[in-house]
Every structure is written in C-alpha cells, then in structure tokens.
Amino acid sequence: RQAMEDPSPPPAQPVPVPAQAEAAAATGQAAIPASSKAIRFPLRPGKGSAGTRCLVKANHFIAQLPDKDLHHYHVSITPEVTSRVVNRAVIHELVNLHRAAYLGGRLPAYDGRKSLYTAGPLPFASKEFQITLLDDDDGSGAQRRQRNFKVVIKFAARADLHRLGMFLAGRHAEAPQEALQVLDIVLRELPSARYAPFGRSFFSPDLGRRQPLGDGLESWRGFYQSIRPTQMGLSLNIDMSATAFIEPLPVIDYAAQLLRSDIHSRPLSDAERVKIKKALRGVKVEVTHRGNMRRKYRISGLTTQATRELTFPVDEGGTVKSVVQYFQETYGFAIQHTYLPCLQVGNQQRPNYLPMEVCKIVEGQRYSKRLNQNQIRALLDETCQYPRDRERDITQMVKHNAYQEDPYAKEFGIKISDRLASVDARILPAPRLKYNETGREKDCLPRVGQWNMMNKKMVNGGKVRSWMCVNFARNVPDKLARDFCHQLAQMCQDSGMDFALEPVLPPMSARPDQVERALKARYHEAMNILGPQRRELDLLIGILPDNNGSLYGDLKRVCEIDLGIVSQCCCTKQVFKLNKQIYANIALKINVKVGGRNTVLVDALSRRIPLVTDRPTIIFGADVTHPHPGEDSSPSIAAVVASQDWPEVTRYAGLVSAQAHRQELIEDLYKVRQDPQKGPVSSGMIRELLISFKKSTGEKPQRIIFYRDGVSEGQFYQVLLFELNAIRKVNTYFIHPVLYLSVFRCFH
C-alpha cells in the first residue's frame, strides 16, 4: 500500500452534493432518498462451494470488542491552530498535568481535532483548562518561548458500541461508522506519538532501512493500520507501506542532487535558482554555524542576488551591513560559497537571510509533491515483497508495536491478537477459454494462471491497415527496429489480426527530449500519404528506453489527446530479446486496443455464468481520480467503462469527464442540457454507454452490475444515493422496463 495520497477524511464527513442534484431535489424531480436509512444492503446469501478448500493467512489481527462505557467529549482549543501536532501536544500536556486531579484517572484518546473519548465518564460535564507549551530547546541556553492555550472539554454523547456488536453478530445491516471511528482513534493514539503519521499510515526511519529515491529524496518504511469489522469479528488490518521523505542533507548537497550537478564552485543559472526555490519553499531547515544551537526556520523563498551582494539595515539610523560581513563579525564564520543565493526565512515582508551552506534540512519532512517515474519505480521496488517476507515483516511490526501493552488499548479494554488470522479459502477452477475456430487449438484450460498463444488464434482479430514506428531508444539501431517491427507485424497477422506487414513509413529514430515534435512531424508525414487515399493512421508503435522517466506519459498524451491515434509502447529489453512469446503478448495488447477480442469464456457462450448470461447484462466500472496533494486548482477526473458485448462481456468502452476539484460524486453520470430547438435534453455518461451497448448487441440491458471504486465506507451511502438515482433517471428507451440493478463497492 503506497501512502502517497491525501490523509483519508473522517468516516463521518459528509460528501458535498453537486448543485444540479440539489436543484433537482428542490423541484421534486430527483428520486434521491432523504437518508441512507432508505437503503438496506442484503446479507451474504451463503458461502461458496466450488474449487479446492484451503487455509490462508490474512494480514488481519483479531480484536476483542471492548465491554466499556465510552464517552465522547467536544474539545475547543483557543487560540485555534490547524496543526494536529500542536493540538496533540496541548492535550498531552493537559493529561500529564491533570489526569489524576481532574480527569478521574482516565487516559483519554484524542483525534487531534475536536473529539476526545474516554472509557467511562469524566467527573464533569464541562471544564476549562489553561495550558502552557514551551518551544523546543534550540541549544542556545536562552529562555524558551511560551504559548498559552485555553482548552474547554465538554460532554457531547455516549458512544454506542451495542450497534457494532449487533452488526458483528449479523443482526444489523449497517456498520456503525462512529463506533469504528472511536476504536480507530484509540488504537492510533500511541503510534501517533511514536511515529510520523500521514493518512492512515505511520512512518519512521527506525522501522526499516532508508533507500535513496534520487533528487534529494529517500523512502521511509512504515505501516498502514485500520480497525475493520469482518466475518471473523472485529480485526486490526496491518500492512507494510513506504513513502518519500526529503533527505536531511546540507542544503547545498540537496540542491546539487536536485540539479544533478556540482554547484560548490559556480553560481546558479536563473532556471536552476527557480527550480531550487520551488523545491525548498515550505521546507524546514536548522542552522549549523552556531555549535549546539540548532534553531529551526521554514524557507519562504530564495534571493535573486548572490550572497556577496546582499545587504540589510542593522539599525534605524540607516546603517547597512553585508550578509558576509555580519556572519564574520557576529559568529566568526567565513562564508565560502558567496556566489550562491541565500535562503529567505520568516516573514515575506521582512525576511531573514541565511546562507545555504549554514543550513541543513530537518529530518522527518514528508515529500507530498508528485514523484517522477524513476522515483515511483524505486518506491515500488522498495515495497515489493514475496508473501512470506511480507508476513514476517507484518508480524514483526505487530510485536514491535506491542498492542497488548498499549496503555490506551488497555484503558479502553481492546485486546489485539499477535497472530495473523487464518481464513478458510477456495482455489477456484480456472475458466476454459475459447479461441477462434480456425486455429489448431480452439479452446484452452489455463494451468497455474498461465497459458500461451501457440496454435491459437484470436476470437476476433482487429484491423490495422496503416501503422508506423518511432524509436526513442538510442541503443536500438535502425536495422534492429525494422526487424522487430516486421516480426511483430507477422505475429499479429498469424494470431488472427488483419494487420499490414509493412508500415506506412520506415521506423524513424528520435530524441527522447523531443517526443512531441517527433511524433507530430512523423504523423503529418504519414497523413500526407494516407490522406489522399482517405485513410487514417491506425497504430503507432513506440520503442522506449528501459528507464524512460516521463517519456511514456508524454507519448501517450500526444497520441491520445493531440493526434487521436492508438499507441503501443515497447521497452528496449523486449526489442533485443526477439522472443516469440513477447511478440504474442504485445499482439494481444494491440488487438484489444483496436477493437478486437482475444478470447472469451466458454461458460459465457454456453450461458453458464450466474447473474450475467441468463438475461442481457451490462457491467459498469467507475472511479474518480483526484489531483495530487498541492495541486489546488486541477479538476478531478471521473472515468466510467461499460461492457459492449453480451453474453461474452469481453469488450469495454470508456468515457472520462472533468469535474469539480476533489469531488467524489460523479457529476456527469446523468445531466440535462438545454438544446436551442428541443429544449431540455437528457444526456450523460450512463446514457451514452447504454446507447453504445444497444447498438453493438441489439439488446436493452435487463440487468446492470455497477462496480464503484474509490469510496470510503463513510461516503459510500451518500455516493450510492446520488449515483443510483442518476442511473434510474435514464430513459427506459435504453433500459428494459424490468431491470435488476446491483452496485458493488470495490476494495483493495
């Protein structure tokens, strides 16, 4: 699990409903129920019996539901601060000072915001406390700054664990999110004090080796933790994770890594200065030129002038002193790299100047911006483990955290097992695959999840009449690129595709840093040949270096968005192998992209797939991708795919739509637009995909199966209410009047 996303919102947080839904509800047009209580999920009808029974281990640790009287208190801290770290420090100090005298000996669990929970009542309904925090000792020997806070703790409600017990016993349909949230907060209290918390994960350099990711970043190991209701009862889900942190380097060394160039003996260019400024803004540094005194500052910018050119007023009389002179006279420190700019720290109006060579990056700062492709690959390599190794690390993590000795878990009566849960499982029989009748092998039964295309032909081969290749790998000579393309074209044809053996133009070599220019130029050359024949370019094959950074994404963007052509990328190592199995795998990918079908399930053709093949069925999949943290203006992107054949359900069409920033509800599932002639006209992603399904199958779907990804449990009911209503509003011209609709929430 990669902890590269924004911290998950609290389960109880409401999902904003788009304005069109609110307006429809106000006019009485929408069929959105007023509450999630109008929906009840069906219970699981039973357990499977197919396949071979076995026992597996899951990264879940059984927890006993506490038999305690839990109380919820509202916390108000004045002056208000946004930092959970500061809030936790305030409450921690309050508990240290007043636990025995005023809290009745209770050890409360705090969420870092507005909620505090206790196992049993506090001896008051409302009470005010005055708390003083001291800043960290910077080693100067000077008096530490004091910050005073007023804390008001007020009784809010009793947390109801009875409904959770009913749910776990199968006598209640809904998982009570508030009760689960209380238990989650209790079990996160101790790790939050020990480690660096981000989202639902905790990280520390003590939890595993650090690995460099390049450009001044490193990976820290950590663990994901969440309390879950399961069929086994309550359990704690633990998984290993990793994320990127800024390396605690001297600032000059960090800048050199970022620029991939030695800057110890030369000034920076304007472009380099801007890049460093962008990377360092908001980063905390500590000074190193004052012995044991390590005062910390947050970087607000970078000077445009070199250090040797910087001056500042030292008194109200207008006396000016240079930064170089000030450091020499005040600290006896001779600045060596006077040609480099200074860091600006503190107030933007009156910033302080710190030479880069006297600053070191403070440890423990998570990098929340977008990683490049090489860094992502390094991070994935770090977290990729064999199951046995992962089992060992997770078990060690649980023992290291010592949940049995956790004072908060003890206070609230939560007991956590230190053994992975054993779960009954079944190894399902592999489905038989159907291939084209013209091949020597007309069907195939995969073994251990593997099969190949030897003696087989695709069920429906796609058409590629015109194609070309652009080679961005400098170590792949032109002759090898031509041979590779010829062998690949031959494999596509032999596998059942209508594939031209010769490209429109010979393979061309191009520089990776000029991908857009090369692709567009070559495309226009090809269209000069195809245009007079009223033909289009069907496919572009791109040969890329093995470590291609952003090249892959750039090629896809240009082909998909700018040129509107299908593309297939191949790595250098695939080209050099000249292996038939590699050609076959690439041919399968190309065939699906150009509208073909590689194989179908024998059970689908014989109508033996339950709830799919008995009546016309369309299967939807939907997800919303949100901008990376820090990208505050970018839209969220909703994507919906739907099957376009039946009973095979093998071909899919997809639609994407930009919508409001971080909006989880898919706004364009159903919408009404104003047509100048026709007036209000219904449209939307569901309608378009249903029209496409009817055109390709000749059937109106009698069943819709809708898989929805990316929704937390707390949001699911609200998302379900809105999106279910959007599906129901589609005209019955596209849906059979007797409709069966199933919605599934996807889990990772």
UniProtKB/TrEMBL annotation:
Keywords: RNA-mediated gene silencing
GO molecular function: RNA binding
Stretches assigned to the Piwi domain: 539-748
Compositionally biased region (Pro residues): 7-17
PROSITE patterns named in the record: PAZ, PIWI
Entry-linked InterPro entries: ArgoL1, ArgoL2, Argonaute_Mid_dom, Argonaute_N, PAZ_dom, PAZ_dom_sf, Piwi, RNaseH-like_sf
Gene3D superfamilies: 3.40.50.2300, paz domain, Ribonuclease H-like superfamily/Ribonuclease H
SUPFAM superfamilies: PAZ domain, Ribonuclease H-like
GO biological process: regulatory ncRNA-mediated gene silencing
Biased composition (Low complexity): 18-27
Domain PAZ per the UniProt entry, residue ranges: 250-363
Chain intervals for the UniProt region annotation (Disordered): 1-27
Range of residues in the leader sequence: none
UniProt family annotation: Belongs to the argonaute family. Ago subfamily.
Protein name stated in the entry: Piwi domain-containing protein
